[in-house]
Amino acid sequence: MIGRLNHVAIAVPDLDAAAALYRDTLGAKVGPPQDEPDHGVTVIFITLPNTKIELLYPLGDNSPIGSFLEKNPAGGIHHICYEVENILEARDKLKADGARVLGTGEPKIGAHGKPVLFLHPKDFSGTLVELEQV
Amino acid sequence: MIGRLNHVAIAVPDLDAAAALYRDTLGAKVGPPQDEPDHGVTVIFITLPNTKIELLYPLGDNSPIGSFLEKNPAGGIHHICYEVENILEARDKLKADGARVLGTGEPKIGAHGKPVLFLHPKDFSGTLVELEQV
């Protein structure tokens, strides 16, 4: 069912410092900051040859990243995103197998403009998993 | 400097359950368990079209995964691994930029039989980073 690893998302307490680290010290291709007010984050995409790293920083008062950074002040890996061909089929299969889909269970439009769902970390070895339809 | 994302490593409290989840529920290509006594882990590789997921489970009394699982009983993402062409050049550049290399600073032979180094999470937004020479 799952296809490519679309991205690894890392929540960071200092977006400029993290971008500089990936650009100057690790020598990666680092994009500009993009505000995503619908998702409560400012995002920087780092393009690797085979996948992406997303740096996430809180935007606004109700950012989903805010509480994560309170618990992990140095930052940390927030989630991983797998691609699926059909997100509704994927969701129904997951629910039939007993996995919990977060929120209403209906896909939302994610930061890439594609339908996404998030799965409960407790059902996936402590890992917050995003599914994105591509 | 960094190239492909070689793998994302997830520490899991139940290797069989995590393998079944990725194979049966997520429909991924899941390999057999491999004991790596030199690294204190049993590993299962999950092959995605563009990268790998490594499931890590403690092996022996001094596993580096043991304390991680004590802190994160449900499991969690343990590290991410970037490929580099020349690990000694990468190390020297990182040290010159003030990043801390774990252990002796000399590369070890990793689970894939290639030279690896680990970088201090505090210098990389709370993320344990492995570099692997390919």
UniProtKB/TrEMBL annotation, chains A, B:
Which family, according to UniProt? Belongs to the methylmalonyl-CoA epimerase family.
This enzyme's EC code(s): 5.1.99.1
NCBIfam families tied to this protein = metmalonyl_epim
Q: Which domain of life is it from?
A: Bacteria
What Pfam families does the entry give? Glyoxalase_4
Q: What is this protein called?
A: methylmalonyl-CoA epimerase
Q: Might you name a Gene Ontology BP term for this protein?
A: L-methylmalonyl-CoA metabolic process
Q: Where is the VOC domain?
A: 4-134
> Keywords for this entry?
Cobalt, Isomerase, Metal-binding
According to UniProt, the reaction catalysed is: (R)-methylmalonyl-CoA = (S)-methylmalonyl-CoA
